[in-house]
Amino acid sequence: MKIIIPMAGLGKRMRPHTLTTPKPLLDIAGKSIVSRLITDISEMLNEPIEEVAYIIGDFGKQVEEDLYKLSEELNLKAKIYYQYEALGTAHALYMAKDSLSGNVLVAYADTLFYTTFKADISEDACIWVKKIDNPSQFGVVELDHQGYITRFVEKPKEFVSDLAIIGIYYFKDASALLREIEFLLENNITGNGEYQLTDALERLMNKGMKIKAAEVQGWFDCGNKNAVLQTHQEIFKLGKFQKTNLLPENITGSVIHQPCYIAEDVKIIDSEIGPYVSIGNGTIVENAKIENSIIYSHASIQNATLRNSMIGSYVKYHNMKDREVSLGDYSEIL
Question: What value does the mean pLDDT take over residues 255-277?
Fold first, then answer.
């Protein structure tokens, strides 16, 4: 089994944090989005993963090194492909054409999911879906009585289905998908100016491929700051975070309301932390109250009250009360 993760988007809705770090490499509760995605997929599959292929933009050598390191930590072989132009979901996969063969699972690095079922890789293809309340904002699928997909509908104005595509796809023989993507590109078949994966999928279904829908229990968005913080909460509620051993000398005169993720070398002085707070390596918090927030590494928070906030690495945030903020790396508010 191979996993392909398209992640070349600029993450504009997550700025300023994505100005320095691609969105899939942002940490949530001490673990990057893409690492969580790969781990959750591994738990769902019934067979070992032989390769993970990342499709990235012009993110620089450090990002490539981080992805290779992440894969090594997960005992996976890594490949990196590049999509320099935003020409659509099918075009992104075409950039990884050398990996589009055999059993392949495609997972777009925009969201996380939760499920207790194991993937059925005996099917020709599967698409993961989630029942939602607002289907007009998403691509949805219609099913037959056996749970196979009969139609794709993008952001329906009138109700046709409440099963939204969450961005995870399995193909028993990905070379068949590659042939249909090549057909789209060769014949310049686009939707809204981009080469769409759903067009390739419809061609596969028209040729007889049966695509099963697999419904997940949880689908967590990482599209903007508020969505990330909501996902952050859900991860804590599911217990999907590593609990750290807090050294007494690093936590003085302070109260920690669990659940929280606090890196081992964080110093917290005369503060009240939590619930639903993550604090990264080397951060110092003094005389502060923080809840439902993510604070990245080597930040300094003093004489401050924070809620529903994201604070980047090396930020200095002092003498501010009762604020909800989103500050990129190296910002200073003193």
Answer: 93
- The per-residue pLDDT of the chain, averaged, comes to 89
CATH topology identical between 2-237 and 248-333: no
Three-class SS of 130-152: EECCCHHHCEEEEECCCCEEEEE
Structure confidence by residue, pLDDT tens digits, 6-20: 988 767 777 888 778
Residues 132 and 139 sit within 8 Å (Cβ to Cβ): no
Structure tokens at 39: 């781990």
Task: Compute the distance between CA of residue 71 and CA of residue 38 in angstroms, rounded to an integer.
Answer: 9
pLDDT of residue 46: 75
Q: Which CATH architecture has domain 2-237?
A: Alpha-Beta Complex (3.90)
CATH class of domain segment(s) 248-333: mainly beta
CA nearest to 289, candidates 91, 297, 299, 275: 275
Collapsing DSSP to helix, strand or coil, 63 comes out as helix
CA distance 282 to 88: 39
Cα–Cα distance, 268 to 287 (Å, whole number): 8
Burial class (CB in 10 A: 0-12, 13-18, 19+), 188: exposed
For residue 290, the tally of other CB atoms under 10 A from its CB is 25
Alpha carbons 218 and 303: distance in angstroms, whole number: 37
Q: Where are the domains of the chain?
A: 2-237, 248-333
Distance CA 181, CA 199 (A): 8
Closest CA to 151 of 166, 164, 162, 140: 140
At residue 10, the pLDDT reads: 67
